[in-house]
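Standup notes
- DV: blocked on the single-chain target, sequence here:
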Amino acid sequence: MKTIFDSFNRLFNGRTLLLSTSYVHLEDFYIRFDTLQLCHLLGLHKIYRDSAKVMYQKVLAGEITLAKLKRNQHYGEIKDRLETLIFSVKVSLMRPLRPAS
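- DV (later): unblocked, structure below
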């Protein structure tokens, strides 16, 4: 998990993503990435009742690991979120994001 958080910090933290859709009521919207929100994006709140800051500190301290999450009875609820983020990090490492022009 620490590697996921470190990669997220390096690749996404503080960046803003502009998404454009064909949906008339929501043509463009922005997503701002923040490390403390990563706990929620991953679904860690479904397993731990700590604040995002405390969960982040536990990840950095090695108290929350992918191996421990996989053993948790609620892992199935967050598995897709974790796999999607891991995939996004891998893709971004192969092709870094560029600032919008």
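- Follow-up: The CA atoms of residues 89 and 95 lie 10 Å apart.
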